[in-house]
Amino acid sequence: MESLFWVFLVMIPLERFGCLSSTGRALPWLGISFVLYLSGVGTEWLSIDGAIYLFPYFLAGLLTARFGHALNDSKRIYGWAVLAALAVLVYANAEQLPTSPRTAPALAIGLITCVSLLLTRLHSPLLAAIGIYSYSIYLFHVFGTAASRIVLAGIGVESTALLLACGIAAGIALPILVDRVASRSDLGRRLLLGKGKGRPRPGVVPVSSGRSGRVPFRREPERPSGADSTSQGRGSSGLTG
């Protein structure tokens, strides 16, 4: 979590001064992040080393989302082709690949894999539903994974596969539960999730739902300009009539 804090702290001046407003301005900063990543500099103190590790991936993801207009459905075959070639290459050279994460092969494999997956345009409704809670999962997954491991180890479970499966499930389910409970109040959203007050999205208005007391949302229909006064006049005449 501290690593991400440092990343956000660096992003503030970069965004404020327009350093990432175009590909020409952003690429030098991406290059700097690569140099820092490969240099080996950093310290575990306050997770600065972790921030340097995350920064190239964070910037690459941001720039891909911001300027990756060419990532359309027509390029899906390229994504699959690159992934297949990369898998074969890694498999064939697995013994020669360095084990340290902050190396050029690790950085290249990580970035190429992520961009290629974006090119494939894969869509999973289940993963999309889980992805809504991605930041909460990032914050609280360790509590679920650690708790499941402690409980299973306490009852004598030693199967690595079972420990892994239960750890993944708990690491996803617990943060989602925390998010849903904390989001019920503005104080919970602020303290646990770092979010502001919950507000309907633009163009969405609340409507009554009857017995349940819950307030779903529906999209307000767009009206042509100049129609407001006419509709208001009709509404007024209907009420007075």
Structure description:
A two-stranded antiparallel sheet has the order 1-2. It is mostly helical and 241 residues long. It is 66% helix and 2% strand. The model is unreliable at 200-241 (pLDDT under 50). It has 3 domains: 1-69, no CATH class; 71-122; 136-197, no CATH class. Helix 1 (2-16) packs across helix 3 (48-67), helix 7 (134-154) crosses helix 8 and helix 8 crosses helix 9. It has helices at 2-16, 23-39, 48-67, 76-92, 104-120, 125-131, 134-154, 160-182, 186-193, 227-240, and strands at residues 204-206, 217-219. The radius of gyration is 24 Å and the shape is globular. It contains 10 helices and 2 strands, in the order H-H-H-H-H-H-H-H-H-E-E-H.
